[in-house]
Amino acid sequence: MPPLSRLAPALLLLAPAPARADEPVDFARDVRPLLSNSCFKCHGPASQMGKVRLDTREAAVKSGAIVPGSPDKSTLVERVCEPSDDDRMPPPEAGPRLTAQQVKTLKQWIAEGAEYTPHWAFQRVVRPQPPTTKTATRYAIDRFVLARLEKAGLTMSAEADRSTLLRRVTLDLTGLLPTPVEVLAFLDDRSPDAYEKAVDRLLASPHYGERHARHWLDLARYADSNGYTIDGARSIWPYRDWVVRALNADLPFDQFTTHQLAGDLLPGATADQKIATGFHRNTSFNEEGGTDPEQFRVERTVDRANTTGAVWLGLTVGCAQCHTHKYDPVTQHDYYRLYAFFDSCDEPTMPIGGTAKMEEAISRLNQMEAWIQKNGGSREDIDLVKAEIKRVQGKVTTTLVMRERPAARTTHVQIRGDFLRKGDVVQPGFPAALGATPAGKRQTRLDLAKWLVSRDNPLTARVTVNREWQKFFGRGLVETENDFGMQGALPTHPELLDWLAVQFMEPLGWSMKKLHRQIVLSATYRQASVVRPDLTQRDPRNLLLGRQSRLRLEAEVIRDAALSASGKLNTKVGGPGVYPPQPKEVFAFTQSQRTWPESKGPDRYRRGVYTYIWRQSQHPLLTTFDGADAQTACTKRNRSNTPLQALHLANDPVFVELATELGRRVDTDGGADDAAKVRFAYRACFGRDPTTQEAARVLAYLEAQRRTDAVGAWPATARVLMNLDEFITRE
């Protein structure tokens, strides 16, 4: 559960002043967070100590804890005001006393009738009307943002300069730097729709799918190995390629969901739809000797239930594995109903890609073997044909998929989460607080997928657009992107969140590209990221979106940027994982001895999304720059700032090599004189021209290098540029 300290800043902004006596208390804003943080652990869905339950009005009134209209008769008020630590609530070991203001709010709420309102995230999504603002704006997104800013007496920042804007949107949509040619073309295009044309070009790029596939693969806990101590290799890269293709083709998110959760159950399921079910084959798999296969099958099924809850519902459903959730309306029976959807799955391997040709070749070899035997061929001839058959079979590409068992397993509630202690039998079903499970036929994964993306589910669209917003601003409208439950943060812009959710489902038809287009065309997105004194004082965390956010690039994008700037990037899309250089010592402490067959030639320079991922010994670039750990669904990567990162960029042989290549490229292609070459280098690295002062400093450094090493002067200069903070930052 997120600590209160993580939520407090958002709550302070959302409720800048306590409710006045003449202003009704808002239960969702003022009271529910107070009860959730201080009371629900012992008096909520999972535990009702002293037979007191406070998460529902009926139970709270029945116990006498709350007497609507009479705070002085309510035992809740009596206990929170109790001076003795022995009797006060919450007790000292459970948390601090309520403040005087919190007690005042609680009393006012009870005096006003103690009305409970449903948790905002569990209410049906309704399209709000964009508000009227003092400043005219073209896009609805901006009206919601401006309304909040104007209410706080603030304004939006000016639009970023054109060079910054192109670099920002190119990185955000494709994960690559704009080329010097693209920078010049954009700066020379003075038409009113120049930016829109650039956005449409980037959305149509095959690199769009690679960029956003990496985000999705974090959620899918994608890796090319099985995990645990043996961490054996697996073939699942076709699933990764399916994600890239689906995003490039703008497969609507409702279908994107259905194919991954239940593609094998679709009528006449295609090979692609079956490959998509690899989403839930990304679980770890224990190959150690002496293990209980059933125990680890159950663990994989638990992981599937938890991941589904995190990715589509934004809830910590895993908290209900051993007992009813302490804060959210997810019972233990709800949990195992969700678990039951995945309990009857088999885990087959499926051959793909060129299978028909392989089968034909094997058939011909089998015929040849029969002919040799019939016509008196030697044993050696027969062995040669058999060896060839085995070789051809080994060339068949396979991937991991899901398949329903012919007969369903009986699913039990597992008492205290122990698979050996079986409780009540449950059928597949949805969490009761979010919707009724249809009576009649047994529900399947396909029914689950359809419910997740139905208009009746209040969470999926909200959770998804929030995560997409996070990509472009560094923080979601709901800061706790993995927890839309009672302990999660309130949305900073609730109307905007719901407007985006409805927009995503209906007019946009679940189109991710159309959603991204609306976001990046907005004035909110196009703002400069420069920190303003008034914002620093009144909105230091930029929750009101009065400027853009300055973000360090992710691990894979940093290397991709270096490849792009140096001109070495191999833009091939798809295929098996590759092995860019890494230190030999990475595998020194793994249980199973393995090698890293370092890629040669063009494969050495493939994008980071194609790097082979060993779960237990990831590439150092990923560990240094906060890559996803591939053990569980990663809804947001950290963005740390450590000395190791600076040392990695300055000394890692790969980055030294790419800086050298950039220097050679600048010297060869940059222009006739050093001034032109400096401009070329800046466009390649930063998407802009240098200032007069910057150019003078670079030229002075270049000249100093020439005095000691004429050949290495440009590579040394390029190395400096690639180690500037701006190079690994999206402004």
UniProtKB/TrEMBL annotation:
Signal sequence interval, chain numbering: 1-21
Spans through the membrane: none
Pfam families given in the database record: PSCyt1, PSCyt2, PSD1
Record bears the keyword tRNA-binding: no
Keyword vocabulary terms for this entry: Signal
An example molecular function term from Gene Ontology annotations: electron transfer activity
InterPro entries, A to Z: Cyt_c-like_dom_sf, Cyt_c_Planctomycete-type, DUF1549, DUF1553
Protein name per the record: Planctomycete cytochrome C
Taxonomic path: Bacteria, Pseudomonadati, Planctomycetota, Planctomycetia, Gemmatales
